Amino acid sequence: MGLLNALAQCALDFLVDERCHACARAVDAARFPGPPPALAAPLELATFPLKLTSRLLCADCAGGVERWAKPVSLAHPEPARAGHRPIALYPAFVTDEKLLTVIHLLKFARHECIAPWLARAMMLGLPAPARGAGDAWLAVPVPMDRRSRSRRGFNQAESLARALAAGWELPIARAGALEKVRRTLPQSALGRAERLTNLEHAFRADTAVVRGRRVILVDDLVTSGATVHACARALRDGGAGEIRVVCAGYRDQRRSLLQS
């Protein structure tokens, strides 16, 4: 089987002109000094009956995606009005066009196999929950409403949460532990004030599942923070204790404004 895998991979490499999804250069044409960065790791396209891999980013583009060095104390966009307190945000990477390319392939091209690959890259730079506390932590994905999930076929946050939970050996919340109880407009299409009202009372947590648990809330991207704050508030209302938000990408909006 090992020889057959190697022959099949050689055939795939020969037939497919593998190019970086970010810069469009041939993947083999780009070099990176030292060990390859996490986002340059091969993506498993298939594991049965043959194991076949490809690459999404060249080493140069993958190495150009900046990692977050430390957690972020994420304040609500309007903490005084909304009554929210800051939450601990653990981003794996700084959101840029290269990372967005990967996220768009996952979400909109519906390549769900990207989720475990991205989760492995995230875990290389994220602190794992403390040993011996596995029973207390619970991985909870940011939910989608049922119509949106049905249209896409999967929830990318749930796929990431499942892979992270497996890697950290944590339980993952069952369906309905945190759910979106009403449809909302896409946050990306709204202004700052509209984003806040759009998510009011949009989420509900199951008290029987989250009460007394420490929660790792998982999402793909965090922008303004309005969505994860709305989820965190629902979790606290359901009796959850410490809440840690983990995401693939985040870009500090205040820092972006200062640098623009």
Topology:
Layout: H1 2-15, E1 43-46, E2 52-54, H2 59-64, E3 72-74, H3 79-82, E4 87-94, H4 97-107, H5 114-123, E5 137-141, H6 146-152, H7 156-168, E6 178-180, H8 192-198, E7 203-205, H9 207-210, E8 214-222, H10 226-237, E9 243-250, H11 253-259
Parallel strand pairs: 4-9, 5-8, 8-9
Antiparallel strand pairs: 1-2, 3-4, 6-7
Helix pairs in contact: 5-7
Structural summary, described in words:
This protein is an alpha/beta fold. The protein folds into two domains: 2-64, no CATH class; 72-259, Rossmann fold (3-Layer(aba) Sandwich). The protein has eleven helices and nine strands. It has a five-stranded mixed beta sheet, sandwiched between helices. Strands 1-2 form a two-stranded antiparallel sheet. Helix 10 links the parallel strand 8 (214-222) and strand 9. The longest helix is centred in the first third of the chain and has 14 residues, at 2-15. It is globular, with a radius of gyration of 19 Å.
List keywords for this structure.
alpha/beta, Rossmann fold, 11 helices, disordered N terminus, 260 residues
- Roughly how many Å apart are the termini? 54 Å
CATH class of the largest domain: Alpha Beta
- Main sheet record: 5 strands, mixed
The chain-level mean pLDDT equals 83
At CATH's second level, what is the architecture of the largest domain?
A: 3-Layer(aba) Sandwich
Secondary-structure class: alpha/beta
Number of domains: 2
Number of DSSP strands?
9
Contiguous uncertain segments of 5+ residues: 3-16, 256-260
